[in-house]
Amino acid sequence: MATVRLAPVLRASAGGAKQVSAQGDNLAEILSDLYEQFPALKEQIQPEQELSRFINVYVNDQDVRYLQGLETAVGQNDTVILLPAMAGGR
């Protein structure tokens, strides 16, 4: 199973967990398993078919937007990081 690390703002939707495990061969399958475990996460991460533009998703520290997006391969020992985009400044 892959490890999915959740940013603090997402943890309430996952029972307060900092990280959880999910199964799948690619990011789409990992997220589908994650949504089955924690349905409230879907609206924050993937309200439509594509990932929300307000969340950054990394597989082993690589941004999936520069890989294969939802089709990015995920191995059993890989780490997926879900990190909401931050905005601000002057």
From TrEMBL:
<dbReference type="InterPro" id="IPR003749">
    <property type="entry name" value="ThiS/MoaD-like"/>
</dbReference>
<dbReference type="InterPro" id="IPR052045">
    <property type="entry name" value="Sulfur_Carrier/Prot_Modifier"/>
</dbReference>
<dbReference type="Pfam" id="PF02597">
    <property type="entry name" value="ThiS"/>
</dbReference>
<dbReference type="InterPro" id="IPR012675">
    <property type="entry name" value="Beta-grasp_dom_sf"/>
</dbReference>
<protein>
    <submittedName>
        <fullName>Sulfur carrier protein CysO</fullName>
    </submittedName>
</protein>
<dbReference type="InterPro" id="IPR016155">
    <property type="entry name" value="Mopterin_synth/thiamin_S_b"/>
</dbReference>
